[in-house]
Amino acid sequence: MSFNTIHEVRSALDSKQVSAVELAQEALNKAEKLSRLNAFLHIDSELTLAQARMADETIAKGQQGPLTGLPIAHKDVFVTKGWRTTAASKMLANYTSPFDATVVERLAHAGCVNIGKLNCDEYAMGSGNENSAFGACLNPWDEQAVPGGSSGGSAAAVAAGIVLATTGTDTGGSVRQPAALCGVSGIKPTYGTVSRFGMIAFASSLDQAGPLARNARDLVELLDIMSGFDEKDSTSVMSCDGINNAQGRVKQAFNAETAKFQANGSTPLKGLRIGVPQEYFADGISTEVKNAVEQAIAQFVALGAERVDISLPRTALAIPAYYVIAPAEASSNLSRYDGVRYGHRSKEYVGLEQMMSRSRAEGFGPEVQRRIMIGTYVLSQGYYDAYYLQAQRIRRMIANDFQDALNHQCDVIMGPVTPTVAKNIGDNQGDVTADWLADIYTLGVSLAGLPAMSIPCGFGGAQGNRPIGLQVIGNYFKEGQLLALGDCFQQHTDWHKRQAEVK
């Protein structure tokens, strides 16, 4: 059994060519066979097959939806009943949640079958999935390379063909970067459109859930189910430009954009203005990434779009602004892990204060400790105004730069996701902040709360086997437009169809 799209799986299930139990068992077998990739942190076949049997019963009754019986997997920052939720940290090594995250709940209600929990950077802090307390995840295209982070396991599981779709989270690029480096498609929706309830918090004003899959059309099916207002999440939005934030919004917008493209005939993208920021092609970007992205943009132009050169003058400031704001919020969110109520507790201590400090020192890894220290410092008396407040001012300026471009100069913005192809595992051990610089093209979007996606557009590296992604950035609530553009590009290219050869 080999399926490349969700549509193919749906057809096979509905025609009884295959059952949900058979699909789930095949995914479980492949996950075990490819365990060396370290993409999964917890698998429970009994729980998975129980969900699959329920999906088969639903199909037998003729009550199935687009995702009923589809094997998926969840990033290990979404809490799940039954499966452990560790956030890839020793602090939560044995934690099992009594409830499901809203994203997990909605996908389960849609009939998806969970194969297990996916590896990630500890508490989603990282760009290469090397910060996991349970070991690095490997890139299926080149097992010497990182898969990107923090949703590295999510991208690797799709790239390796274990499942067709996964969930991830994006705080500063953590869906888009692994999607780019693993040659799959991924989207970060507008902040607030997908519930954060039950998603272990890193930086609350930045964290947003998003799906990863092989192609844009499959992302539509996942995001449409994941999106929607949730009264349990105070950051959840009820309305998206006058349209209710509910299931159907993304798919309707996608269908409307696709119909418009089809009406334009041989130049489907006629009238579309693509903004290309000059700052995204300045010093620091590798020649192979630059060429691949330029060729991808040229393909959009060949389909009728107009290229418009624009400027996002504060692009470089996104790095210092993000690495003040995100650690500040992380230091606050992670203060709850004190060894008192849940999480790791040190075995040797004298008194409450030493118990808390030792528990945190033992439970948190180096990168998490580093960011907690930074965050605590910038929030401390005497430094709040100089660092945190100033970073928030810059954040607003960065958002204004994007709005000025998207409201007056172009309809979407395109550029690279990362400056280079995937680095080798362990390359930056001598420079703990080197990975932060690789976030330069993704951080501004997160600070502004805009939607953005990554789609495959080429390969590079010494062996020519390390994927390159194209980033497509839209205005607020324009997920349907981005996905329609990605689908149009993928109808005329085959980068998304290429699969890693893993055995």
Layout: helices, strands, pairs:
Layout: H1 6-14, H2 20-33, E1 40-42, H3 45-60, E2 71-75, H4 102-109, E3 113-118, H5 152-159, E4 165-170, H6 176-182, E5 185-188, E6 208-213, H7 216-226, E7 239-240, E8 243-244, H8 249-263, E9 273-277, H9 287-302, E10 306-310, H10 318-333, H11 351-363, H12 366-379, H13 384-408, E11 412-416, H14 434-437, H15 443-448, E12 452-460, E13 466-473, H16 479-491
Parallel strand pairs: 2-3, 2-4, 9-10, 9-11
Antiparallel strand pairs: 1-3, 4-6, 5-6, 5-12, 7-8, 11-13, 12-13
List its traits:
single chain; about 500 residues; Amidase signature (AS) enzymes; 11-stranded mixed sheet; 16 helices; about 40% helix; about 15% strand; ATP binding; Amidase_CS
Description of the molecule:
Its EC number is 6.3.5.7. This protein is an alpha/beta fold and 503 residues long. The chain has a domain at 6-263: Amidase signature (AS) enzymes. Helix content is 39%, strand content 13%. Helix 5 runs parallel beside helix 6. The longest helix has 25 residues, at 384-408. The mean pLDDT is 96.
Secondary-structure element series: HHEHEHEHEHEEHEEHEHEHHHHEHHEEH
Number of strands: 13
Q: Could you give the order of strands across the largest sheet?
A: 1-3-2-4-6-5-12-13-11-9-10
Shape: globular
The CATH superfamily of one domain is identified as Amidase signature (AS) domain
Q: Helix segment count?
A: 16
Radius of gyration: 21 Å
Mean pLDDT: 96
